[in-house]
Amino acid sequence: MEGSLGVRKGAWTEEEDTLLKQYIDKYGEGKWHQVPPRAGLNRCRKSCRLRWLNYLKPNIKRGEFKADEVDLMIRLHKLLVLMGSWTIDRAVSVGSFVPIYYLLDSDKADRDVDALKWSMIAGRLPGRTANDVKNFWNTHLRKNAISRIKDGGEKAHDTLKVNVIKPRPRTFAKNLTWFSGKPTIMAASFQPKDNVIRDLPPTPLSSEDSIKWWENLFDDKETGGEIGPCDVGGLDEEPIATLRWAEAAPAEIVGSPLDEFGPSFWAELSSNLDVWDFLDP
DNA sequence: AAATACATCAACCGCCCCCAT
DNA sequence: AATGGGGGCGGTTGATGTATT
């Protein structure tokens, strides 16, 4: 064990910070196992890595979160809670996915659903680290949400009230630029309730359109039915997936989406698209 | 003024996944 | 095929600072 003999723990001193910074300047980021000896630090590799990633690395934003950052954080968290229950299929899957029984029954499933949550949110908040986002959420947002639920006389639930994102059909073409280099995306079959497969004219993905797509994704004021001007098309090929947001979802639900959507709901959704990948920054 | 409770957040811990061997 | 090590993650802690009684 590398931490067994007299390795320093706890808060970092300025001297240690300087040594670590000097090392990274010289040798670059990575290969953490050789950082302590080469930098002259009496710390374990993980401690060094954490200190760099969460504190010393350039461009890390300090200070309190701005309102727009908090807003985006809440929206992303909301989306991820919902998305977590979408990484499901009983059918063929090429990439990573969580079978439904797995989701419903096992503790491990909870971990998988939560996987990468904070880093994904942090990835969309420039300069913020996953640790910062997690801390902020746990200290400010989660507590408030729980107490609100309790004050309202509703059942105490150890999770947030989650507004479900409104129905919004989406069709993705194959070979989107967005998909490139994301091997867990695979062919998907997703049956909308009305069986209407809506295709979009394939057009190149511009960053502006990408932003528009995200705005639509987060818009929970308007109930979708129409496909918006959503030019996320790629090459002239068959759609890789047709997604439809939860049909007639309740305005809000308490706790996990699984509380509200029973097995029949999932039975209707046959998707092996790993939605997590859409959030990859 | 002192004691106590509460809030914050940097850092640690254990686990999991991936990859090289 | 099996396994061991490294990186990366979420959950949690505990030292420190701040508010309340």
UniProtKB/TrEMBL annotation:
Gene Ontology MF annotations: DNA binding
PROSITE patterns per record: HTH_MYB, MYB_LIKE
Keyword Transcription regulation set for record: yes
Major localisation: nucleus
Keywords: Activator, DNA-binding, Nucleus, Repeat, Transcription, Transcription regulation
The HTH myb-type domain, residue ranges: 7-60, 117-145
Every Myb-like domain range: 4-56, 57-141
GO biological process: regulation of primary metabolic process
Localization (cell): Nucleus
GO cellular component: nucleus
Protein's UniProt name: Uncharacterized protein
Record organism: Morella rubra (Chinese bayberry)
Organism taxonomic ancestry: Eukaryota, Viridiplantae, Streptophyta, Embryophyta, Tracheophyta
